Amino acid sequence: MTRLLLPVILLLIVPHRARAIEVKVSAKALERTAKAQLFSTPDGRYYMRGDAGSPCSVYAEQPRITFRDNRIVVRVHTRARLGTSLRGACLGVSLTTDAVVSLVPEAEGESIGFRDARLERMSDNRELNFLLAPFLAGKLPQKLKVNAADLMRKLLDGSGPSTGYALSLDRLKLHSLLVQDQSLILDADGAMKVD
After folding, report:
1. Could you tell me the pLDDT band of residue 102, with boundaries at 50, 70 and 90?
2. Long-range residue pairs from 55-59, CB within 8 A, at least 24 positions apart, any chain
């Protein structure tokens, strides 16, 4: 019996180095991040030109995220009223299209980042594409960036009342990100504390 208890006691007493953990992130979770960080106006839009009260405006809405191959695919619905404002109306052309960009996830310390933005589908209108390209290839990947450690710390903050144990994350280091099946897989080392 003491032979069985000794390894258990040693496991509890001897400090261990951080062990690798694997976290799976769904496309829906990334969509919620996009909506919270970029499509955060009351109408759920991101305005590239104008605003909700402008007669002429260009905006993206309804972000949908899926996974394909080793890439994250972001599809947004875009609407544009291009022309000249005259007496509260936009004299010009209205365009509606879905635009698509794909990104490669990248581990950046504690954060999930994105690189290699590839414009998969744009509109047939050059003026609209002039506004869409910087948004899809620059602003969208930049705003989708998430500090995974901060999110985990927020989740653990409420653990005391619900579990009776105060859990906290001391450190997290992301090593790699990989799209597999319908999840974004985070490979990380971390250290947690239980009080």
Report:
1. very high
2. 55/81, 55/85, 55/86, 55/88, 55/89, 55/90, 56/81, 56/82, 56/83, 56/84, 56/85, 56/90, 56/92, 57/81, 57/90, 58/82, 58/128, 58/131
Q: Give the span between the Cα atoms of 145 and 34, in whole angstroms.
A: 9
The secondary structure element, H or E, covering residue 32 is helix 27-37
Give the pLDDT band of residue 75 (cuts 50, 70, 90): very high
Encode pLDDT of 3-18 as tens digits: 444 444 444 444 545 4
- Expressed in angstroms, the distance from the first to the final Cα of the chain is 29
Query: What is the residue extent of each domain of the chain?
Result: 17-22+148-194, 27-146
- What is the rounded (10 degree) CA torsion for 187, 26, 105, 193? -40
pTM: 0.80
Q: Which residues pair with 77 in a beta bridge?
A: 61, 98
pLDDT band at 19 (very low <50, low <70, confident <90, very high): low
Residue in the structure block whose two tokens are 């299209």: 97
- Concatenating the DSSP letter of every residue in 75-141 gives EEEEEEEEEEEETTEEEEEEEEEEEEEEEEEEEETTEEEEEEEEEEE--S-HHHHHHHHHIIIIIHH
